[in-house]
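User: Can you model how zinc ion sits in this protein?
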Amino acid sequence: MNYHNRCKLHVFGDVYVTVNDYNNITYVHVRYFDGKYPTKKGVAMSLARWKSLVQLIPKIQENRSADQSAFEHLGGNCYVSITDGIPGIDLRQFWMPDGDLQVKATRRGVHFSQQDFDKFVDLIPRINCYIPEFHDIKLCSERDDHQNQQGLLRCKECNPNEYHIQ
Ligand SMILES: [Zn+2]
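Assistant: Here's the modeled complex, given as structure tokens:
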């Protein structure tokens, strides 16, 4: 096992973004800290999820200014969302309970006020300084086996809940 921390950047309150390599896999965490220590409240994103989040920012900002809800899948049941009647933006891990058809929110996530989300967005170029491979990251949807719906449905990242169309 090896672990390497690339950066820890403050977003707001007790929330930090960290980029680290764990067994040679890079993760971007957005997470509440308790003093020096990370808590379970937050998300760990693979670089593909991180890139899809970054690419979704303009859309999220647009929905936000238009007062529209949003529910965007980053992969593996990680969502960025805006909910009607709840101010701010939510970045969160969801899960699908057995036998259910709708994903449910977990406590593992961060809720941003609009102001805090702006701080987060402003921080993205600085975060990406620590991810020199950013432009080479391939999104799941860009892969050859995702050019038809079958491939998409078979992908654990895009379709994590094994929902099968009959
Ligand atoms: Zn996929």
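A couple of observations from the model: The first strand starts at residue 3 and ends at 12. The longest helix spans residues 47-65.
User: Helpful, thanks.
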